[in-house]
Design brief:
Length: 625
Amino acid sequence: MNLVSANGISRTESGRLLFKNASFGIDDDSRIAIIGRNGTGKTTLMKIIAGIKEPEDGLVTKNRELKIAFLEQTPSFAPGEKIADFILAGDSEEIKTVRDYEKAVSSANVDTEVVTTLVEKMESLGCWTLEQRIQSLLSELGINDLGLDMSSLSGGMIKKTALARTLVSDADLIILDEPTNHLDIETIDWLEQFLAKAGKAVLLVTHDRYFMDKVCNSVIELDEQQVFVYEGNYSSYLSQKAMRETVKNKTADRLNNILRNEAEWIKRGPRARAGKDKKRKARFFEMMNERPEPKAVSDSFSVEGKRLGGKILEIEGVSKAYEGKVLFEDFTFSFRKGDKVGIIGANGSGKTSLLNIVTGRTQPDSGSVEYGVNTKIAYYDQMSKELPLGEKVGDYIKDTAEIIKLRDGSTISPSQFLERFLFPSNLMYTEIGNLSGGERKKLHLLKLLLENPNFLVFDEPTNDFDIQTLSILEDFLSNFAGCAVVVSHDRFFLDRTVDFLIVIDEHGKLQGFSGSASEYYEFKKDVTADLKQEEKKNELPDKKVSGWKDNRDKKKGLSFKEKQELSGIEDEILSLEDEKQQLENFFMSPDASAAESGEKKKRYDELLGIIEECYQRWEDLESRA
């Protein structure tokens, strides 16, 4: 079923034409990724589909019953707003009804007629299970204290909370702007699985190529003010795009090199590289701290960095705590020439704190950091410094270098260097204030690279750049003769740029891993699964507890709403069990067709989850009645 049709739409922002005469459709089974360089209008296009912005020309038509949930790249919230209030601040009909009901029953003078009307509406919309769905999502995302202020959360926790609010709504189309930014890899993996099973249409912008390849079944590309639609996932897009560029015969060689590199890595895939080989799995702990020899680098595209000395950077017995929580302790590490090191760990584990200690921005609580006399660090952090918005791009770069010397001895101009990072030559005379956010970040990065560093430090660089820029940056780092340290949750980027990992666990312990990020996470899954299997053999049955765990003041016993819910949940369970039995009878029938079986199997899998949730909810309510 078609949900949205865009016909000949165009849009201009800040005097720049983003796209013109764009036409495409979104069906109820569409999972579409929008890709394109920074500044081409990806977020603008999503906001037009969401109804937040309007096209200048053309028409967007939507199904009359269509409900849309939109996750912004940077979620906003009111001062002092609690997590629980933020979650219930959505605008879906379910959320509004729950909000109205909560307000009505907590009023000093309860209007029983209004409450009765709202109870009927709650029942018709299925709102009694909404709190349970919210709690289930929050639990899976690791959000437990609903009484916390939103302003006190880390960037990752804010993104998780905003995701929960978006995903719990009863929307037909979920629109996600950079959903993986600030998320740790475990959460990204969870989100991949959630979207694959949700049965909703999805429209998203992301730089995470593994995520896109797993989740999406079509790609919309914004290129040269046009919109191109490709059927299939990201791997399929790469093949089709390469063919289109060859036919076009315009800058084909350079772009096809990028596309070939991308396709090669995507084909390997996280599981293909990690595999399930038992011998490899047995070496999981053997690989810890086995640092590989640095790879020899070619004279491909890379600036001529200052030569490193014998001593580069030595970390000795470093520890750091924050607000009473130990982030890491007694960490020792010595960098060698050519080391490319990735730092991974959950949100809040101390990755950025470690980078700040490495770069001298923060002092450790104990231990020391010593730098070689020739070590020159360039630090690309998550915030980046403010740029002179009134200055022209070309002048900003020329302030650093009039002529740029590459490692092979050749020289290029600043404008040629920018073009290698896909900055169009016409932007050289554009004021920085007229650039998109991503373009400004890219300009700041290039400024750092031109300062002739030999030790590069990156804190979440993939949050800001388009895929083509990331591919070029990956190639640049592969050919960089100096050292590099990267904090990132982007498995693709880490796989292509680093050859050794520093892993920070939840207990502040740091370990090394000689291998790719994809290998590490696959090994971690296997080891975790084995441990859970062992625990299951020994554990005693435990009473399950579920429901909305709000840490604000609560009354004992059941609320009026919960009593209403308990009275109807047994009938709901019986009805669901009957439907389950009917489906099982169908599967046993010799007359069942393959097409019917496929559809009914999806419903059967969905039913199992719903029934389990209902039983858990019934146990919780019954125990407090």
